[in-house]
Amino acid sequence: MQSFSKLLHFVRKDLLSQKKLNAFFVFNLVLGFLGFLLLQVFQASLDQQTKDKAQEILGGDIVISARRVITDDEVKSIEEKVNLKFIKKAKSSDFFAMVKFGEQSRLVLVRSVGENYPVYGDLEIKTTEGKKDILKNITPGAVYVDPELVDQLKITDQSSAKLKVGDIDLALKGVLTSDPSRTFRLGALAPFILISEKDLSATNLVKPGSTVTTSYLYQLNDPMAADAAKADLEKNYLDPSLRFNSALQEDDGGNRVFRYLIDYLGLVSLISIGLCFLCLSYMLNWFFQIQKKTIAIYKILGLDESSILKVQVLKNLFLSVGSFVIALAIVILALAPVQALLDNYFKIPINLIVSPKQILVSFFVVVLGPQLIAIPTYLAAMTMNPLVLLRQELSQAHLSRRTQIIWAVGVGLLFWGLAVWQSHSLQTGSIFMVGLIGATLTAWIFISVLRRATALVVDKFNFDLKYAFLSLIRKPGSTDLIFMTMTLSVVVLTLLPHIKKSIIEEVRPAHSSKIPSVFMFDIQMDQKDELVKIVKDKTGQDIELTPLVRSRILKINEQSYERVEEQGFFKTRESENEARFRNRGVNLTYKAKLQESEDLVDGQWFTGQTGEVSEISLEEKYAERVGAKLGDIMTFDVQGLEIKGKVTSLRRVRWTSFQPNFFITFQPGVLEEAPQVYLSAVMQINQDQVRELQNAVVDRFANISIINVQQSVEKSLVFIDQMALALQIMATLALVVGFFIFIILINTQVGERINEMNLLQVLGSTQDQLYRIMITQFSLIAFLSLMVGLGLGSLISYAIVSAMFKLGIYFDYVSMLSLIVVLVSITFGVLKVSMQPLRSLQPLTLLKNEGGLVDSK
């Protein structure tokens, strides 16, 4: 205890004797901690918002469904078998049926629901009296419909309207204006009606053998256990007709954007951790180097190395913890005004929270993590001669190769484990780690080769340039440290803009004019010409009709497609899902050229030549799922006729383009004579034109279904835009953290060179020469760091977008230009401020070894 008290005494003496240095250190730490904490708060809050939205779209934390009737006894047996613990559940049944009003009839998607529906979110309606309301309970005898169905059935008096659904008449009680569980999917294009489960049997529409999708939606006691519950269900209940989904593992297109957001948030977290490690590790190493004089004095006075190390570590921990507490207090105080700014100005529906988990993770990352990285510097300084420690340049760590390898592997594994844990993905964390290691090695090799090459030609320069370059060459430790830290900072700052742009380009059309207002399907061949004329007359647009041919895959390379031999000793849930997937019918189309929403990723587009085997193109992910590759021969059953196609190309499809897209596309000249219907979309028109077009089409062609998709699409895009803005804010916060690193790097490195500049001034150099030397040094390092960092960051972005998100890369050149402008401005701005002490340098300062922190009074 007495020994520890003695150590604390030395710590207190050090803190009081170096107030200016300690204050400078704390100020920089607080800046770095603030950026990191704000990023963590925003990331956790956005992550929770995304999960909540995903729950609304799926309809619950977990959903049990099947394309058949699921009995209550069967569900009860499943719940008991896996001990499923839930707060409430709801049942829904979906099927297609005809609904009739007067002389008008339409094909609709009927959903019958029981109590507690919806489990998450609200059903917004407009009552027959025209009032907006939230639908809490669907009473027997009532029906709620989509707005377009009112126009299609020509319902003028909603208050007395009754719709015939199967064998019963149901009173129209309102129009559905918002249902969070319904997203735009081309596979379910039909007007939607909602009825009570108690009316289902009376409709007499669902009979043995009927196609109906039954779903049970659950709100679990612990929503975080949804994925585990899903895995438990798949393991213990292997009926291939059943499907189990959790909110964030839902495969449907409606949740694609949320999976992108979750992956992006994990990546942002990794980048913020990487930036914080870079910043704080550098700060600790620099701070330790500045205190070499104090360490040397302790050694000369006989204090043992172990005690010196403990004093320095305790002091650094004290300052780091104090800085963390200050930053945390500022964040908590700033939470309310920032929340108000998000609510009132940015209109982002995010509830900012600071949880104990966030505080614990942040404390470990920003306080303890960098201390571990600084261990080699600590150990090296303890073993150095006091005369070496008294020098001003950055001392090199002389540790055994074995110690260095053990330390490097340990820190690498620690950071990799933290990366995997924080991103919730082995793939994401590993790709990021490999990319960071690759960038580090590349930057080190680059600066080492450049330093040696420059040494060969430096004699040809004038004095100012020669001295500037020689100063960098003769201090490899200092030069490498600042270059590597700056380069890696630019690398991680480059990742976010490129990846964010790639995600937004995928989930949101680039131009609003590409979003259709109306979608039409079930168009017959003999109706094409007249429909084109009607649309032209009502909207002024020339529409394109996309053919749809229904078929089934029979063989791939002459092997049966529907019955697949199981590989290995057991069946996996994935193989069961694949078996069910293989038994579904497929929709084919044919066309001569790619759409704007498609990109060729492999192979060759149709040559136009016809032969015994036709050319076909597959969507790349669909090809992976069915096990097809370039050159494979696929056999299709098209209305009893076998047609063969050779896979000649793979396409990437932007499904969120809201255009008629298909998994399988044939070359023209093959399917034209097959039975087919057509799809078409009408681009942006106003709601009056939508109603007029609907009425005209329904009057002339009762079989054509026409869907007003504009409202549902616009609601989805509102959320996407909000999330895009949120991602931009997160990227900006990460940039701010990165900017702090640049400020800290330049400020500390200029301080380290102050005494050197003072010596040059004593030897006759002018103020202008000193400025030119300093600006040349740091401009060169900043320029090289920017160029190498931007290049490596772009390469890693491409790898992450392709491997992790499986998207096409979109480089954000505007953000890169902005990044260059800001970082260059910061470099010169900080240089100007940091070099102010040059104006007041005195020869006497050389005798005061103050570690480069010169009082400018």
Description:
This protein has 857 residues and is of the alpha+beta class. The protein has 25 helices and 22 strands. Strands 2-3-9-6-8-7 form a six-stranded mixed β-barrel. The chain has a six-stranded mixed barrel with strand order 13-15-20-17-19-18. Mean pLDDT is 78; it is low at 184-188, 563-577 and 849-857.
Helix-strand layout with pairing:
Layout (H helix, E strand, L loop, with lengths): L1 H16 L1 H40 L3 E5 L5 H10 L4 E16 L2 E10 L9 E5 L4 E4 L6 E4 L1 H6 L9 E4 L2 E11 L13 E5 L3 H4 L9 E8 L5 H11 L5 E5 L9 H35 L1 H9 L4 H42 L9 H18 L1 H9 L2 H4 L11 H23 L2 H32 L5 H11 L2 H32 L10 E6 L4 H12 L6 E11 L2 E2 L12 H10 L3 E5 L7 E6 L10 E6 H7 L6 E6 L2 E13 L10 E3 L10 E6 L4 H14 L4 E4 L1 H43 L1 H9 L4 H39 L7 H22 L8 H5 L10
Parallel strand pairs: 3-9, 6-8, 15-20, 17-19
Antiparallel strand pairs: 1-10, 1-11, 2-3, 2-7, 2-10, 4-5, 4-8, 6-9, 7-8, 12-21, 12-22, 13-14, 13-15, 13-18, 13-21, 16-19, 17-20, 18-19
Helix pairs in contact: 1-9, 2-7, 2-9, 2-10, 2-21, 7-10, 7-16, 7-21, 9-10, 9-11, 13-14, 14-15, 14-16, 14-23, 15-23, 16-21, 16-23, 16-24, 17-20, 21-24, 23-24
